[in-house]
């Protein structure tokens, strides 16, 4: 016997659609306390929250909630179709993939191709953004899985390591550090640096220096990896980046040199991450398997 009724499924979908109890109650023509009590019963039955309650009546959908709503909307569409054969069929399953912007030129296109080949019945969308936007998307249930570095994530996220990356110093071909032994962080401290202007990335880079008692001078913060490379190629400083394109010229054709930083303990994991402690739906689980198989070293 089913515990939840179609009306209760409509309640959850309405709260997700309107973003607040008051607006959803108005649309459903029920009282807000009645809707709140019904939602509490539904979440109690499922064993995990569908929404995060915020100040006032504002509601944010959890990852489990977004998956539940997607399946509930498909169920309601099927029920409507049974009553009316002319009703359109429900949409395909969906997967929302996030990717850190510096990694996106290297990982996003192959990830999308692999997912679409392995899961042709799933509609895959993506967003390439900075760390904080990716984390926000995961928390709000707007992103199911993300490819990123293991920075700024607490215990509420499930991580799966894919491969390790090491930082490189990016410089003009006539820079003093272009010759001799690979530079370490102490050597880089003697020159102006170019870092990403992405908050967590810059904090992480500066933290590598400060844990060694070094205080580098930051000359520029670049909005994109290619801007960082262009500034370095023109002698504006030494760029530091974990991402390394295969070509050794900037966008405007200036030659540049990438040298791995010599300190042994600077590796950072590229991870596949999702948010939420509840059960993982089959689509997300399968997508994780596809991406792990694609990017893990063989």
Automatic annotation (TrEMBL):
GO terms for cellular component: protein-DNA complex. The keyword Membrane does not apply. SUPFAM superfamilies: Periplasmic binding protein-like II, Winged helix' DNA-binding domain. PROSITE patterns: HTH_LYSR. Keywords: DNA-binding, Transcription, Transcription regulation. GO terms for molecular function: DNA binding; DNA-binding transcription factor activity. The keyword Transcription regulation applies. It comes from the Bacteria. Residues 4-62 form the HTH lysR-type domain. Pfam families: HTH_1, LysR_substrate. Belongs to the LysR transcriptional regulatory family. This is Transcriptional regulator, LysR family. It comes from Ruegeria marina.
């Amino acid at each position: 016997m089913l515990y939840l009724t179609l009306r209760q499924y409509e309640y959850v979908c309405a709260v997700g659609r309107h973003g607040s109890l008051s607006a959803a109650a108005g649309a459903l023509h029920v009282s807000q306390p009645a809707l709140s009590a019904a939602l509490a019963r539904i979440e109690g039955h499922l064993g995990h929250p569908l929404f995060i309650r915020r100040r006032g009546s504002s509601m944010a959908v959890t990852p489990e909630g977004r998956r539940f709503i997607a399946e509930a909307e498909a169920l309601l569409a099927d029920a409507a179709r049974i009553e009316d054969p002319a009703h359109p069929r429900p949409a395909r399953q969906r997967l929302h993939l996030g990717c850190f912007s510096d990694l996106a030129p290297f990982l996003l296109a192959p990830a999308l191709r692999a997912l679409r080949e392995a899961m042709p019945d799933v509609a895959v969308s993506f967003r390439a953004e900075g760390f904080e936007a990716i984390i926000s998307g995961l928390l709000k249930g707007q992103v199911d899985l993300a490819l990123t570095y293991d920075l700024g994530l607490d215990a509420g996220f499930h991580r799966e390591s894919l491969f390790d990356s090491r930082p490189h110093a990016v410089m003009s071909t006539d820079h003093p550090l272009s010759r001799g032994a690979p530079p370490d962080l102490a050597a880089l401290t003697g020159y102006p640096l170019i870092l990403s202007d992405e908050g967590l990335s810059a904090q992480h880079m500066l933290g590598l220096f400060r844990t060694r008692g070094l205080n580098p001078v930051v000359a520029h913060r670049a909005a994109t990896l290619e801007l960082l490379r262009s500034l370095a190629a023109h002698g504006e400083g030494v760029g530091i980046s974990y991402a390394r394109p295969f070509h050794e010229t900037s966008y405007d054709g200036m030659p540049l040199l990438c040298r791995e930083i010599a300190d042994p303990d600077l590796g950072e994991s590229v991870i596949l991450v999702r948010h939420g402690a509840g059960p993982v739906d089959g689509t997300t689980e399968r997508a994780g398997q596809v991406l792990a198989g694609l990017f893990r070293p063989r």
